[in-house]
Every structure is written in structure tokens, then in C-alpha cells.
Amino acid sequence: MAIIASNFKTNHTRKTTKEFIQTVNSYLEENKIENEVIVFPTSSSLDNFNTVCNLTIGAQNAYAVNSGSFTGEIGTQQLDEFNIKTILIGHSERRHILGETQEEIALKYEFYKDLGYKIVYCIGEPLEVKQEGLQATLEYIYEQFVGIDTNYENLILAYEPVWAIGTGVTATNDDIKNVHNAIKEKINKPLLYGGSVKVENVAEICAIPNVDGALIGTASWIKEDFIQIIENTKDL
Ligand code: PEP
């Protein structure tokens, strides 16, 4: 069963997030869809959503703390209010735009692992590394596992090449196959692909061996499109 996740990034309001989640929830319920679906809204749109068991709401980010003086951040005190037990860690926008280091990411990972959170952990190489070939790409990706307990039972991985995120350029099936096969050989965890997945290509990508689903940004933000994405992968 494919795992389909939507990363809202900095999009949607409380009102439209609620509408989105309610619509997706009704669709899953009415059609008895079995995909595991995860939605990562903005922190300001987290709430107590009444969802079916295969629709999970996660945090795009949180600090490795319960509460404290970390201006602009949220911790588990805020997540607990909404019973959030799923978190995205290592997204390339946090690594490359917000400047999170591997050391900080590993500390965050350890903190949320100790609390039993489901962690969707992102890895992926920038364009200049991809251009050096598969070996360089894999070496770069393996560095992103430094300090990360890959045996953690509640871990989902997401391979997201930086050059494919939000660019409209999806990795080729061969690119995806090569990287996924290599990662799976080392780490036997569910492995999603992310990077310009669209309504039109999600089924083909999710059907590649060793692809267990997709993490989707841009193409998932319109609720009808997200439902179509789930519809296109429901039988995989
Ligand atoms: C993402 O942000 O995780 C992502 C894959 O974005 P997009 O689908 O827009 O490339």
C-alpha cells in the first residue's frame, strides 16, 4: 500500500487547511482507501482534526524541546495539544535555506525518536553532486545518515533530490530506481520519492520497485489534485 504524504510548506491558512483535511478524510472514508496518508500543514494550522486512522497529521518542523525560550519555534508542548506524533525531519529547505546542520538534524531526530514519533526523514543531493554521478550522489546521501538511527522502528525515509524539489523537474525513473535500490540495500525502511511528483506521474513513480510512496509539495496543495493523487495510487 503506497504511503502518500503532502507537505504544505508555507501554504494554506487555518481555514483552508481544515477544509483540505476534512475533504480528504471524507474521501478516504467513503471510498475505503487503504493508502497511508500523511499531511504536514503549517504549524499555525495544526489543530485537533478528527481523522480516519490512515490519515495522519504531522508537523513540518519542531524544535527538540518540550517548551522553553526558542523564539519562533514550537516544541512538544504545542504538538501534544493536538496529539501530533509525526514529524518531518531533514527536509532540504530546512537544510539549505534555514541552514540546519547534520548535527542539529541528528539531535532533533534523536529527541523525537525517544518520544516514539513517526519520523519522515528526508535525504537528497543538490544538482552539482548529481552531476558527478551515482557514486557521488550516494556518498552525499550516506553523509545525511550520520547520527541517524536507521533501525528506528517508526522511520519512513524520503529520497528528495534537491534539484527536483519545487522545480517541475522530476527525477527520471532510472535515477529513482538507482538511488532507491542502493538505499534499500542498506536500510530496509519504507522509502518515498519526492521532487516534482505530479498527478500525472505519481502512479508510474510509485510502481517503481523499492518506491513505497511519495512525498509531494506543490502538486498536493489543491485538495482535488491530492485526492486524484491518492486515487491514482490506491491499488498499488
Ligand atoms: C517537498 O517539498 O517535499 C517536495 C517534494 O516538493 P515538490 O513536490 O513541490 O517538488
Can I get a quick summary?
The chain is an alpha/beta fold and 236 residues long. Helices cover 36% and strands 15% of the residues.
Identify every distinct bound molecule in the structure, by name, code or SMILES: phosphoenolpyruvate
> How many DSSP-defined strands?
8
Mean of pLDDT: 97
Radius of gyration based on Cα positions: 17 Å
- Name of the CATH homologous superfamily: Aldolase class I
Q: CATH topology, what is it called?
A: TIM Barrel
Number of structural units classed as domains: 1
What general form does the structure show? globular
Helix % is 25-40%
CATH architecture: Alpha-Beta Barrel
CATH class: Alpha Beta
Helix- and strand-based class?
alpha/beta
Proportion of beta-strand residues: 15-25%
Number of helices: 9
Largest sheet: 8 strands, parallel
- H and E string: EHEEHEHHEHHEHEHEH
